[in-house]
């Protein structure tokens, strides 16, 4: 075998000794295909959700709509019905009237037109029903139910996760590889202060991160904020601390700077698909939901969306906050217990 063959054989042996190369080349595409296949599997269409505002005539309208299997109707007060329409939870709001009902639809919602046709057909079955064109349709467009409104909180959560993992795990592994951690361990430096400095620096950067996302989302896309900015900041800081703890844990396992990138991706990539960054996590089958709900990025994204788009207070986010707290404390304790300085 010539020199070229020996060099090629050497490269193949180097690749064989790096299992992360085989993982990202062969295993990761298969896993990604399976996960996305579960999220976007073919299913029968679910009923179109419609709200009827409470008042005189609402029970009669509800009785007519309940005879249509393609519709799922419920009676709500006017304010709640409009809020549900603005959040995309219902496709149409039907307001009873003296002569004919009024249909409130959001033109940005794809199911709005379908809902109007189904409602008109359901009402037309009654002998004294108004004509199809007599049902007044009023376009209602409010921020909060667009895809960009759904996307921004997910991107903020993903950004907090990625920046925390990369900003802590990579420098720690690099410092260990350069023997800097070993030198620092031999100084009078408090080891707790060393980790605290990393976490406090991450906190300051997270504040800037949350402020930047809120500013550009508001100015460029008009993304609303129905909740408290302080609540959003508190959730963002807890999320940053959570993934900082995971970064410390990753830095223990990484042997060198080449492997830390693969471990960070191994931690973050599944959550990017499962935790509702680009599409709702409810797309996955029911048997996966307990696992998805236990992921820290799911809890972070759900909390950010609830505050921004629903106006939810921190007091009502008990379960997501508990999940984030658990993912903050447990990895931190494990990382401090088994952290390697050399």
> Mean pLDDT, as a whole number?
82
The fraction of residues in strands falls at 5-15%
Q: Looking across the biggest beta sheet, what order are the strands in?
A: 2-1-3-4-5
Low-confidence stretches: none
Structural class, please?
A: alpha/beta
Description of the structure:
It is a single chain. This protein is of the alpha/beta class and 342 residues long. The chain folds into 2 domains: 48-139, D-Maltodextrin-Binding Protein, domain 2 (3-Layer(aba) Sandwich), CATH 3.40.190.10; 147-338, no CATH class. The protein has helices at 3-16, 19-39, 58-65, 78-86, 111-124, 147-177, 180-185, 191-221, 229-253, 257-274, 289-293, 296-310, 318-338; strands at 48-53, 71-76, 92-95, 102-105, 136-139. Helix 2 (19-39) packs parallel to helix 10 (257-274) and helix 8 (191-221) packs across helix 9 (229-253). The protein starts with a helix and ends with a helix. The relative contact order is 0.10. The model has no long low-confidence stretch (mean pLDDT 82).
